[in-house]
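Quick one before lunch.
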Amino acid sequence: MNWMADNVEVRNDPARLLSGCGTIIVIAVNYYTPQLHLKFPDFPKISRYAWGRDYHKVVSGILKKLAVEVQDIADAAGIGNVNYQVAVDTAPFRDKVWAQKAGLGWIGKNSTLITRKFGSWVFIGSLLTNLHLEPDSEHPDHCGTCTRCIDACPTEALVGPSQLDSRACISYLTIEYEGHIPDRYCEKLSGWIFGCDICQDVCPWNRFAKPTNTRDFKPREGLVVPDLQLLSQMSVEEYDSLTRGTALRRAGRDRLRRNALAVMGLL
Ligand code: B12
Ligand code: SF4
Ligand code: SF4
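Model of the cobalamin complex:
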């Protein structure tokens, strides 16, 4: 993820992303759907965040509509033109940090933003604006003495509370990592072909998850129970029809095929 080292100054200072930035309006969009991964060990699995339409597109759309509403309110208040910039993992910007500062939840020991209402099955989107609004208060941390996520991670990627060693994380290895997945991790993939939900599945706050009302997140066919054989040898056309419009495109055909082979123990 060399791109993380690019534009660090912008990532640390939203005023470099939107000149005159005075307020960041942050939203958390619930993507939970009631389907469950099959419980057999090592059964092929795709992370639930990638089952439906690509969240970058969905959340950007919601934020653009929000920007229109904000402008209407500003017009009614005689404030004038609102400058804005949308960020949904689409800009050098720290989504979780600002979501926490905006009072939406807290960054849990599993390193995800957890909300009291929906657990951690939320995407984060931000609208940077030149407005100067009164901020909501920050949310207290509710992890307490729990360490379930740290204990459950099969690759020991959570090296401390909220500290993730991405190099060991199955999500990184199956989505971002190029080349041969190191043997020591291949044997611990636990069936994950794209992403990994283990440290969220075990989180007690996710007992409060509620089905999303965003229809775009409804799972596409073939993604909740993936066909490992197909994935391991899919043609360009098969890849195209299986992944069109989803976040699976981030990995690309070669990596998805590699991951399927790794899960089958053939790498
Ligand atoms: C890189 C990245 C990854 C990497 C690293 C993950 C990580 N935990 O950082 C990998 C590929 C492993 C990954 C995996 C996943 N990701 Co990801 N990822 C990102 C991305 C692009 C950047 C995150 C980042 O900067 N990490 C680096 C660390 C150092 O920063 P940080 O944790 O955000 O913040 C720390 C420091 O900044 C510091 N800090 C605290 N306060 C402040 C204040 C200031 C001013 C500063 C400078 C610093 C600072 O402490 C913070 C906490 O440790 C974000 C989108 C974005 N642009 O933010 C999505 C994002 C974090 N990912 C997301 C998702 C959904 C996932 C997965 C759940 C997908 C999956 N199921 O496989 C997993 C979760 C793995 C896990 N346990 O964290 C969502 C998380 C939603 C949520 N509820 O939290 C995000 C927010 C995308 C989005 N817009 O919705 N991801
Ligand atoms: S996503 Fe999976 S591999 Fe990564 S920290 Fe969570 S449990 Fe560990
Ligand atoms: S599993 Fe426990 S420690 Fe981990 S994020 Fe959830 S509440 Fe916090």
